[in-house]
Write a structure and sequence with these properties.
Length: 165
């Protein structure tokens, strides 16, 4: 959930509120086919608790084991049904081996481009970004954008998407 003042506004924008990765996948499935450009900007948790408890668990002595299940991979699932001409761009937040991991994610998820960023972008107004695009021959094209404000980064993402379109 995101506070209303943090959400974009516009006559042609429609916000679909979701709580979980599964909710996001279902909401996105409904609009995915009609999108020319898809930017996967949400930071979806990779795992969720295997068991849900509506109430606080009482404290016990000893160890508590928390079992986790993988959440659906929204971008990989949606991109499996991509139509020709549709452009998809994702993000890769990495702490190490960023370029290699971003390039792997680009291929594995069937993206046209990916924005690589580090932890410095979390919670701040700027970050250090690199854009990696998939070329027709399959080799990645790397464009280091450097330090940018988030609005400037968003503009560059849309410009890159338009170029890929």
């Amino acid at each position: 959930p995101v506070a209303d003042e943090q959400l974009p506004r516009g006559v042609r924008l429609k916000v679909h509120r979701v709580i979980s990765a599964q909710d996001m996948l279902e909401a996105a499935r409904a609009v995915y086919a009609g999108a020319d450009i898809v930017v996967y900007a949400a930071a979806v948790a990779d795992y969720r608790p295997a068991e849900y408890h509506a109430e606080k668990l009482p404290k016990q002595t000893g160890e508590l084991v928390l079992r986790l299940q993988a959440t659906p991979d929204v971008s990989a699932t949606l991109n499996a049904a991509r139509r020709p001409g549709q452009v998809t761009i994702g993000f890769a937040l990495q702490t190490h081996d960023g370029r290699a991991k971003a390039e792997d994610k680009l291929k594995r998820k069937g993206l046209d481009g990916i924005v690589l960023n580090g932890l410095d972008a979390l919670g701040g107004e700027s970050g250090n970004y690199t854009f990696i695009a998939r070329t027709k021959d399959g080799a990645p094209a790397v464009d280091p954008w450097g330090e940018l404000g988030k609005r400037a980064c968003a503009r560059r993402i849309l410009d890159a998407a338009q170029t890929l379109l």
